[in-house]
């Protein structure tokens, strides 16, 4: 084992140049090197922020752009770059470590909310799934209640999403078709070359349960089961994330890391239309950077609302409680928080199979696999989930979905957002209600068996179910109780499972996982159900398990919704904050209605479109 470790060290030293990224000269690690004034200030060097500022620099080569990122650059972090180490990023050095307030329907449990605090934002931490929702879900954004006449909808957003990507076709035939992928963009995507044997059984199992095989699931019709792309560079199987845009940026972009923005500054006088005019930002250290043209917030769904509120834009009763003077009454700020939640079951593999868990308990194997990764040979450290099924309720064999028609008939649905979600329960839209993800190894609600337990050394796989259109709606606001609300952690209350549909849907989803694991060919790998365990049988027991096991699927959206001001919107169809002349939000928070997908493709697409909206105005 020692020999293998030292070999690994040598190999790693030899191969380090593979990981030496092109770091653009303009990335500086201190705001002290910043100019006093730029044309555009982009707050947040995350997913949307880097895509937007890069495209803006290409479209406006003679205008200056500053990107202000709270975290460091960390271009060589192996925890970020090596896919198999992705779990180490949660509560790791580049996580904001946010958490919800205690959730009433989860027996008072709080749920962690990982968010990237590093150049690249949450794409540096995410699980690298690359997928898309149904076309109808993006078309809703063009309705008058949402983006109205600013050109949103599937056609334009699909085009924008495709500009982000460079797909490398697998050599293996029959794993992905032609539609739904694109070439030439900065973010590299592949169909993962490493798939555990038990994971290969998942798609045929879903087909046996009646799901269609879908080899073009990113083309606007995601229904069915298949292997999906992951954001990995084919050249070395390292993570490809938002920093991949930066080499395309012109010298007119300054990326300043470790620069935390506290507030947006405004001119003393409103313009002739009675709108606030943004003039720059203040940083947490008190320094000021001025903007001649625009300030654009790309701080993400859990931070952009906090910056607006700290700057005097929001619900005045929330602001005054936090000691903030209201400049602009806009009560939608921080409201309409919509997240995906997941529940999972864990299965123990038969003794003659192993899983990703082996990396936990077999150090020699882990070292050998890590060496293979550094040699760019197929390795367990390549692993990303990436085998997925998206289903309507009627495709969920045997589920008791009596709660769906009662909701469709409900007279209690008033909001434009909920009406859109209801429309997606009509299966003619092709919108999935449920996502199932295969995740190799233990990924349950408790923890892998302890070193002194008899199950230490066992191998597991996890089936994850995510309900796609949930009706519980939450909020994120400045924490009035914090000494400095502008920079403290925000108060996040997703109100998980408060709507009865959500609780019933999660229960049926959890029950279905047992059925999947009992269906061939997947069942031939299963020794026993480990979580929740066969003692859970009645609906009441399943409800209790869901309360204990449910957690975020990491997709908060809607907190600066692109929506009509009269119904709680924060930005208009051109992503301008209502009531301001030149302050925009460009990130996941503008998504008005949660989509049935992992959301990074949509965020890149929003940023690609936003660059053209900004440059064109
Ligand atoms: C653990 C995890 C797993 C996920 N898995 C997937 C997946 O597999 N597939 C998928 O499609 N999506 C996934 N997602 C979701 C997806 O990655 C995010 O939704 C998306 O990256 C959000 O982009 P954004 O631009 O809105 O925000 P972010 O990318 O989070 O960017 C916000 C940036 O702003 C910075 N910032 C915040 N406040 C300030 C401030 N005051 N001053 C300066 N800078 C600031 C942050 O540090 C950050 O860099 C996952 C997310 C997480 C956290
Ligand atoms: C940009 O500036 C250069 C000179 O610095 C000038 O030649 C060019 O015409 C300008 N381009 C645009 C699009 O304004
Ligand atoms: C989050 O927690 C990790 C582990 O304790 C720590 O290294 C990191 O600095 C924390 N992040 C922030 C923003 O404080
Ligand atoms: C796209 O990927 C191919 C390899 O599949 C590579 O040759 C090409 O350079 C990539 N293009 C971009 C723009 O990254
Ligand atoms: C890494 O491996 C992939 C095949 O999985 C190959 O396409 C690529 O060229 C390799 N990269 C290098 C630098 O050899
Ligand atoms: C503003 O916030 C207060 C306190 O949370 C709340 O009672 C009120 O309904 C909010 N106003 C609007 C218009 O949302
Ligand atoms: C594993 O063992 C089971 C019986 O427990 C057997 O059916 C299966 O074929 C074995 N698989 C392999 C790969 O040996
Ligand atoms: C379906 O669930 C409802 C409660 O949600 C229950 O009243 C009904 O009896 C169930 N039907 C079946 C067939 O289990
Ligand atoms: C709505 O309720 C009516 C009356 O109870 C019933 O006839 C109808 O089938 C319901 N519609 C749906 C979609 O379930
Ligand atoms: C579902 O949509 C189709 C097509 O738009 C429509 O004909 C049908 O009435 C809808 N069903 C329900 C229950 O609303
Ligand atoms: C295993 O070790 C933990 C501490 O690491 C201890 O709390 C626990 O009681 C031990 N369990 C057994 C079965 O020895």
Automatic annotation (TrEMBL):
Keywords: FAD, Flavoprotein, Signal
Full protein name: Alcohol oxidase
Superkingdom: Eukaryota
Signal peptide location: 1-28
Domain Glucose-methanol-choline oxidoreductase N-terminal: 116-139, 300-314
Record has Signal as a keyword: yes
Stored Gene3D superfamilies: FAD/NAD(P)-binding domain, Glucose Oxidase, domain 3
Pfam family, one: GMC_oxred_C
Family of this protein: Belongs to the GMC oxidoreductase family.
InterPro entries in UniProt: FAD/NAD-bd_sf (IPR036188), GMC_OxRdtase (IPR012132), GMC_OxRdtase_N (IPR000172), GMC_OxRtase_C (IPR007867)
């Amino acid at each position: 084992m020692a020999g293998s470790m030292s070999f690994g060290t040598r190999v790693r030293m030899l191969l380090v140049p593979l990981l030496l990224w092109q770091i653009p000269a303009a990335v500086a690690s201190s705001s002290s090197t910043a100019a006093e004034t730029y044309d555009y200030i982009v707050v947040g060097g995350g997913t949307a922020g880097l895509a937007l500022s890069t495209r803006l620099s290409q479209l406006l080569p003679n205008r200056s752009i500053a990107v202000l990122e709270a975290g460091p650059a960390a271009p060589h972090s192996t925890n970020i770059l090596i896919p198999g180490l992705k779990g180490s990023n949660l509560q790791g050095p580049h996580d904001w470590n946010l958490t919800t307030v205690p959730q009433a329907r989860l027996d008072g449990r709080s749920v962690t909310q990982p968010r990237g605090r590093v150049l690249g934002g949450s794409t540096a931490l995410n699980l690298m799934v690359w997928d898309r929702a149904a076309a109808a879900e993006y078309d809703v954004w063009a309705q008058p209640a949402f983006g109205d006449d600013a050109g949103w909808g599937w056609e334009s957003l699909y085009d924008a999403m495709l500009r982000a990507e460079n797909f490398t076709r697998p050599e293996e035939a029959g794993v992905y078709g032609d539609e739904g992928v694109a070439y030439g963009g900065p973010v590299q995507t592949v169909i993962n070359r490493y798939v555990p044997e038990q994971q290969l059984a998942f798609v045929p199992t879903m087909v046996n349960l009646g799901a269609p095989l879908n080899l073009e699931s990113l083309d606007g019709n995601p229904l069915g089961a298949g292997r999906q792309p992951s954001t990995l560079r084919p050249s070395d199987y390292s993570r490809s994330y938002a920093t991949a845009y930066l080499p395309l940026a012109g010298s007119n972009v300054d990326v300043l890391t470790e620069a935390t923005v506290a507030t947006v500054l405004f001119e003393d006088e409103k313009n002739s239309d009675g709108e606030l005019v943004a003039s720059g930002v203040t940083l947490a250290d008190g320094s000021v950077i001025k903007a001649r043209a625009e300030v654009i917030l790309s701080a993400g769904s859990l931070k952009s609302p906090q910056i607006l509120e700290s700057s005097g834009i929001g619900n005045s009763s929330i602001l005054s409680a936090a000691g903030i003077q209201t400049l602009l009454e806009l009560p939608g700020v921080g409201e309409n928080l919509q997240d995906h939640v997941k529940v999972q079951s864990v299965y123990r593999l038969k003794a003659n199979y192993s899983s990703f868990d082996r990396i936990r308990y077999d150090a020699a194997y882990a070292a050998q696999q890590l060496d293979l990764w550094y040699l760019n040979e197929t390795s367990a450290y390549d692993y990303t989930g990436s085998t997925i099924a998206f289903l309507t309720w009627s495709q969920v064999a045997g589920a008791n979905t009596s709660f769906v028609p009662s909701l469709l008939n409900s007279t209690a649905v008033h909001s434009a957002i909920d009406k859109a979600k209801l429309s997606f329960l009509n299966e003619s839209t092709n919108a999935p209600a449920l996502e199932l993800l295969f995740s190799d190894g233990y990924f349950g609600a408790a923890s892998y068996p302890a070193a002194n337990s008899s199950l230490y050394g066992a191998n597991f796989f996890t089936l994850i179910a995510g309900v796609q259109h949930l009706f519980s709606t939450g909020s994120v606001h400045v924490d009035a109780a914090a000494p400095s609300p502008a920079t403290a952690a925000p108060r996040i209350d997703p109100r998980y499972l408060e709507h009865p549909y959500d609780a019933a849907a999660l229960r049926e989803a959890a029950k279905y996982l047992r059925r999947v694991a009992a269906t061939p060919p997947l069942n031939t790998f299963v020794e026993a159900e480990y979580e929740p365990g066969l003692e859970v049988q009645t609906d009441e027991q399943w409800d209790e398990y869901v309360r204990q096991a449910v957690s975020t699927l990491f997709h908060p959206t809607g907190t600066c919704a692109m929506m009509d001001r009269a119904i709680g919107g924060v930005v208009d169809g051109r992503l301008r904050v209502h009531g301001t002349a030149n302050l925009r939000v460009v990130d996941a928070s503008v998504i008005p209605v949660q989509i049935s997908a992992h959301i990074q493709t949509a965020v890149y697409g929003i940023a690609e479109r936003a660059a053209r909206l900004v440059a064109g105005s």
